[in-house]
């Protein structure tokens, strides 16, 4: 356990805050801009560990990139990677690991990909299996189907086509299937890198998970950069068709990070105050906006203002039974406010979060029990029985969302300490500075 601890103070006033740009959108924009033809500028991009690891990887691959603190400039080469033999380091960034692996697999180069120990433990198998099926070659330097590894692109050493797709005309398709039960990032990776191929790509989805809010962001952004994507849904198939095209360089503005905004909305809910997050609008495309529906169902008031969406707590929260499969990053946030509900809070269909930065269901259970809250953990969810939380030290397991979510709990009584708060550098470096600015009453 880290010796670094942040002591959460009671909330002292209504909240008006500004949060960074979306991590999910920033990292998608970085990849697409690198694959586009020409110079793009990404405005309002997130500056965090994950995004900076992604940008550093692009620089190591030879792309001309510049970051001035607010905006990122990238010169794309129409699907070509400048350097053909490079080692990159993705840190703990799942998006960088999955997206760049697909990009390298569709290239004409040979690369080594390394990561943090945390990322090496996270799943990659299903994506790698799909890429191998298309003709990419992998050499694993540790555990099979995990980072670190070497990858040879499907056009390496003068190969003209991939795997079983040889001798196809330009009007025919590559085809690939992918199981997204453990991560929808696999599907997003294949979609966004498909324009690197010499033909159209047809992707079939396998497995049981149907949650696609992040994939919807991917498809929307691909279309905004000029690549046609068709969603195929019928009785026999669930998948996508990506037409052979080249991304068009452009100026792109990143939305505020809805995942980050939700922590402040949750504070309003449990403290009976109002929270406005600047720039968050009703038409925001991030799936975590569904957390606002949860807060409404629990008794909060949600309204749009000229500054941004405002959430107001209206007394004790109501218990709720909710499927969070499509906005699972907010599982920790709901769990953190569940002790203040008037009835049980049941979260289901989030089994995949056991394979993220931490085993998040285990981490939630550990945190709640340390506060004296009774729980019942299942393979795919958790049942929380509310009661007044006692003082506790919250172990974050190096998971940024655990740190931020359970800081919310502490704003009610000022009796929670967050261990290793610096793990928030991954996606929201300013979180605890902002929290300092809106708290301070004596506990």
Structural class from helices and strands?
A: alpha/beta
Distance between the termini: 25 Å
Within CATH, the superfamily of the largest domain carries the name Enolpyruvate transferase domain
Number of H- or I-type helical stretches: 13
- What's the overall average pLDDT, rounded? 92
CATH topology of the largest domain: UDP-n-acetylglucosamine1-carboxyvinyl-transferase, Chain
In CATH terms, what is the architecture of the largest domain? Answer: Alpha-beta prism
Strand order, largest beta sheet: 3-16-18-17
Q: Which of globular, elongated, flat, extended, rod-shaped describes the shape?
A: globular
Give an account of the 3D structure.
- 30% of the residues lie in helices and 25% in strands.
- The protein has 443 residues and is an alpha/beta fold.
- It has 2 domains: 5-20 and 257-441, Alpha-beta prism (UDP-n-acetylglucosamine1-carboxyvinyl-transferase, Chain); 23-242, UDP-n-acetylglucosamine1-carboxyvinyl-transferase, Chain (Alpha-beta prism), CATH 3.65.10.
- The strands form 7 sheets. It has a 4-stranded mixed β-sheet, covered by helices on one side. A 4-stranded mixed β-sheet has the order 5-6-4-15, covered by helices on one side. Strands 7-8-10-9 form a 4-stranded mixed β-sheet.
- Helix 1 (23-35) packs parallel to helix 2 (49-60), helix 1 (23-35) packs parallel to helix 7 and helix 6 (185-193) packs parallel to helix 7 (213-224).
- The longest helix has 14 residues, at 258-271.
- The radius of gyration is 22 Å and the shape is globular.
- The model is unreliable at 160-170 (pLDDT under 50).
């Amino acid at each position: 356990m880290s010796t670094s601890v942040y002591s959460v103070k009671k909330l002292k006033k209504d909240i008006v805050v500004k949060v960074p740009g979306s991590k999910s959108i920033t990292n998608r924009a970085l990849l697409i801009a690198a694959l586009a033809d020409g110079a793009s500028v990404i405005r309002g991009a997130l500056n965090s560990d994950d995004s900076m690891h992604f940008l550093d990887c692009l620089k190591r691959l030879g792309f001309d990139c510049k970051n001035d603190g607010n905006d990122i400039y990238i010169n794309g080469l129409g699907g070509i990677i400048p350097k053909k033999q490079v080692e990159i380091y993705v840190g703990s960034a799942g998006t960088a690991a999955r997206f760049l692996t697909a990009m390298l697999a569709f290239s004409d180069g040979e690369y080594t990909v390394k990561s943090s120990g945390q990322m090496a433990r996270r799943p990659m198998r299903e994506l790698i299996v799909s890429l191998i099926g298309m003709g990419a070659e992998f050499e694993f330097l540790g555990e099979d189907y995990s980072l670190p590894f070497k990858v040879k692109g499907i056009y390496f050493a003068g190969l003209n086509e991939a795997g079983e797709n040889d001798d196809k005309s330009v009007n025919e398709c590559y085809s690939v299937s992918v199981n997204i039960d453990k991560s929808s990032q696999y599907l997003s990776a294949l979609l966004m890198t498909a324009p690197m191929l010499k033909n159209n790509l047809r992707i079939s989805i396998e497995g049981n998970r149907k949650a696609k809010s992040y994939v919807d962001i991917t498809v929307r952004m691909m279309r905004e950069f000029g690549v046609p994507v068709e969603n195929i849904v019928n009785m026999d198939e669930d998948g996508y068709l990506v037409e052979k095209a080249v991304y068009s360089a452009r100026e792109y503005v990143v939305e505020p990070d809805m995942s980050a905004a939700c922590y402040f909305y949750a504070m309003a809910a449990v403290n009976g105050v109002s929270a406005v997050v600047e720039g968050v609008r009703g038409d925001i495309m991030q799936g975590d906006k569904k957390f606002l529906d949860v807060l409404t169902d629990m008794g909060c008031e949600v309204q749009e203002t000229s500054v941004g969406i405002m959430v107001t707590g209206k007394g004790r929260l109501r218990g709720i039974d909710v499927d969070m499969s499509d906005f699972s990053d907010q599982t920790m946030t709901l769990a953190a406010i569940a002790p203040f509900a008037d009835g049980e809070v049941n979260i289901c269909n989030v089994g995949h979060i056991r394979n993220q930065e931490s085993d998040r269901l285990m981490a939630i259970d550990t945190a709640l029990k340390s506060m004296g809250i009774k729980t019942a953990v299942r393979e795919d969810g958790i049942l929380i029985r509310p009661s007044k939380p006692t003082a506790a030290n919250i172990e974050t397991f190096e998971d940024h969302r655990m740190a931020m979510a359970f800081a919310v709990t502490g704003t009610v009584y000022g009796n929670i300490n967050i261990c290793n708060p610096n793990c928030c550098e991954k996606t929201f470096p300013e979180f605890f500075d902002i929290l300092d600015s809106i708290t301070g009453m004596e506990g």
